[in-house]
Amino acid sequence: MAQNVGGGSLLIAWQLKDKNVLIVGGGEVASQRIESILTTDAHITVLAPANGLHHRVKEFIDLYPTRITYYDRRFSGPDELRDMNMVLTALDDVDRSREICEMCGKDKVPVNAADIPDLCDFYFGAQIRDGPLQIMISTNGNGPRMAALMKKKVLSALSGREGEAIEKVGGLRARLKERAPGVGGALGRKRMKWMSEVCNVWEVEDLTQLDDALIAKLLDEGWDKDCVPTLDQLKGQPRPRSQKESSESYAWLLATGSFTLGAICATVIFLSRPR
Ligand SMILES: C[C@@]1(CC(=O)O)C2=NC(=C\c3[nH]c(c(CCC(=O)O)c3CC(=O)O)Cc3[nH]c(c(CC(=O)O)c3CCC(=O)O)/C=C3\N/C(=C\2)[C@@H](CCC(=O)O)[C@]3(C)CC(=O)O)/[C@H]1CCC(=O)O
Ligand SMILES: NC(=O)c1ccc[n+]([C@@H]2O[C@H](COP(=O)([O-])OP(=O)(O)OC[C@H]3O[C@@H](n4cnc5c(N)ncnc54)[C@H](O)[C@@H]3O)[C@@H](O)[C@H]2O)c1
Which ranges carry the Siroheme biosynthesis protein Met8 C-terminal domain (predicted)? Predict the structure, then answer.
């Protein structure tokens, strides 16, 4: 059991596809919020006077007219919250932000007020995105700049190929579920064990090579035969020997060599003995 229970927040991958997100404000922070929400395939409504629009907000509105509905006006009142699944305020007006958050509280609509932690139902974090790979770094309100710096550290540990590898793993999992369908039970356990083993054994770079043909081969030669072949084995190439294996076979050679030499000497001695 963890020693320090509590004091954190829930890190979740919130599914917003086809949901309605209201962004109030059109400055730099609003532009960052729009960018984050666009990745989720939600429908975005932006409320902000045209004369204060950041150039990136304008660009997003022009580029994605079917995804973003823009109104050139200020937030007018509780009616704006109707049908909203999430509200984000990014205003240069703390009092108005507070009022909007109170309205959201009454209507039970989750709300984030940029840089006003006590008004937020949830915080944003520093993000790393590479296809389906999503990493969020949060300091839970303690030091946003530190979150941005930690992001650099995490980025330096990644090769940049993980997103593609994970996409291919997603394809393999889907094909495996077609071949061995059903939820839970013994088959489910076997499927999970086999998938975990593939991810454990295959390098990220190898996983990126999983095209349709290779996936079919891996399922035929691996899943169907209850084993996990390596990429080299699937391609019919002898696996390059590890250092450990090389030194093991060297020791074996030495042992059999000495044995043979010993046997020859014994034979010579036996044959040359005086009769
Ligand atoms: C991570 C990131 C995501 C994003 O906004 O998308 C984010 N802030 C970022 C940058 C940043 N913000 C600020 C600085 C100046 C340096 C500094 O203060 O450290 C820098 C640094 C910079 O610009 O590099 C000022 C600031 N921020 C908050 C306050 C109010 C307060 O603390 O009271 C003040 C004014 C403090 C004051 O007046 O002194 C509050 C919040 N900012 C959060 C998120 C949430 C907590 C996240 C967490 O703890 O992890 C939270 C609680 C609410 C929210 O906004 O959701 C993004 C980096 C993304 C990236 O670069 O990748
Ligand atoms: N930009 C940053 O990097 C940064 C960093 C730290 C903190 N902040 C804080 O985050 C908040 C937003 O920052 P910003 O840079 O995006 O501000 P900004 O001044 O560039 O933009 C504010 C936007 O809110 C709009 N607005 C004001 N009242 C409104 C209303 N009632 N209805 C609709 N729209 C309204 C303005 O027209 C403008 O588009 C501010 O409180 C700021 O202090 C920003």
Answer: 163-229
| Number of structural domains in the chain | 3
Region 183-196: what's the mean pLDDT?
94
CATH number of the structural domain spanning residue 103: 3.40.50.720
What's the domain range around 118?
A: 20-124
Nearest-angstrom CA–CA distance, 35 and 22: 13
ipTM: 0.95
Residue 46's SS3 state is strand
Q: Which of 144, 196, 150 is nearest to 169 (CA)?
A: 196
Active site residue 115: yes
Read off the pLDDT of residues 10-44 as tens digits, 9 standing for 90 and up: 999 999 999 999 999 999 999 999 999 999 999 99
**Which pLDDT does position 242 carry in this prediction?**
44
Q: Closest ligand to 112 CA?
A: 1
Ligand showing the shortest atom-to-Cα distance for residue 29: 2
